[in-house]
Request: fold
Amino acid sequence: MIAVHMNPEKCSFSLQLRVRNFEVDWQGIVHNANYLHYFEIGRIEYLKHVGIPVDMRSIQSDSKVVVVRNEIDYRSPALFDELLEVYTRVSFIRSTSFAFEGMILEERSRRLIAENLAIHVWLDPVTDRPVRVTEAFRSRIRAFEGRNVEFLPE
Amino acid sequence: MIAVHMNPEKCSFSLQLRVRNFEVDWQGIVHNANYLHYFEIGRIEYLKHVGIPVDMRSIQSDSKVVVVRNEIDYRSPALFDELLEVYTRVSFIRSTSFAFEGMILEERSRRLIAENLAIHVWLDPVTDRPVRVTEAFRSRIRAFEGRNVEFLPE
Amino acid sequence: MIAVHMNPEKCSFSLQLRVRNFEVDWQGIVHNANYLHYFEIGRIEYLKHVGIPVDMRSIQSDSKVVVVRNEIDYRSPALFDELLEVYTRVSFIRSTSFAFEGMILEERSRRLIAENLAIHVWLDPVTDRPVRVTEAFRSRIRAFEGRNVEFLPE
Amino acid sequence: MIAVHMNPEKCSFSLQLRVRNFEVDWQGIVHNANYLHYFEIGRIEYLKHVGIPVDMRSIQSDSKVVVVRNEIDYRSPALFDELLEVYTRVSFIRSTSFAFEGMILEERSRRLIAENLAIHVWLDPVTDRPVRVTEAFRSRIRAFEGRNVEFLPE
Reply:
């Protein structure tokens, strides 16, 4: 479990999203599955921002990255038309896997909405077996995150 | 983290779902957020099955139950048109919270697709503060789950 | 505009769907975009039923079929947990296009929920230009629909 | 059917949307149901822009507006990460109904992506029977659209 809250000051990248009416469920709050969309938008834009191309063709040919685990903590429900601030960072890189952390705040009140840990694994696109996270990815993340990203042996 | 796989034999309730084409993403596999829909269908049908009415009006008036945490482990991607078996159970009930566990197998191959732990909290519908899980809910779950559900003090 | 209601008796194929909680919006009714999912499930299952394989690989290699127009008439909102009967048929086949009609009734009350006309075009997978609907498709539909499908010259 | 293309110059309001990866289907293009989300975002932001509050509580108490018909023409598929320009306008107001038109262009190439006509009906929130579109709504739209909106007797 995520014992303590993520620290948004460790996040060098954020973006803003507007809550849409069709994301709100019968309880009048954003449906719990939609936060995975928000966090994923954060990850995609993060990758574009640090210069790692996200392209369906390149993903399927050169390499294949899949999500193997998602943890989401819902702190306070987001409401229709609220503006959300989505913070995203890579927190660690292991041999064949790495972790994205995400955190959502409501823009005006700085109310904490939700937190996410998403573990990704690098696969060989032919055999589907885990392979070492590429040096290209490691160096891009290191250049952007600096001391905020941990490189773990295993 | 879920250290070991859920045991489907502890699940007295399951249902079947067909993977739909619009749930499959550009990688040709079910998009990671859609599994939350599958697990939630499992929970709703479980509640109906054990005799706990799920009605938007009753939820909003008498009581209010919200998801505060979701953990999903993606074991093997589900593919278009596969028939999935969704196992659901309540694994523990604490003072003001309880846990649903879910497990998805592909029907033919018994391939493990994904696992879920979803922590729910019971709220006072007026103050939004946690309140004790109702006796009605506890006794229904006890009657259905028998010794498979744990009642924890805190 | 669809001047008159579709006739469900012309439909030799139907299936049942349960309305899920996450398909219901803040107004307490199924969100208007979700009916397109229901109708599409009807079309996919129709194709499987009449023996036309629906496979993402075959679609992308041998042929390519795209939706070019959707008309949806919302007659009565569907509600959480209702069981819907989705009727589907191919109503006409032109040179390079064909039409699917769909109709949704609530199972118990036979209340008319929504109607759909979806025009599809057959494309050359390389040039993306319209090509003649294949003989294989025409003969399968003719065999299943009999006199209920119209073959139009243009 | 929409005989001719909408004229974007008649639209005094537009917004930009980024195509997200989870909106792209197995064919590598935006799934046909997601355009309804894009057009609806256009309508909601249009209403906010012209000063008509969109609030789930006000909708359910004072008045009730529902979509009764949607027409979508798919002109060219939108692709992952494209920036879309969504044009929205109210084209006519009848006694108890009104029409929103929408048009989506790809921002860079000005490629026409899709067009939409969405007919809405004003309902009495108690009886659910059509009632006259309010004067408040009519005057707001007239003030914003000027001669581009038609007021039709029936």
In short: The first strand of chain C starts at residue 13 and ends at 18.
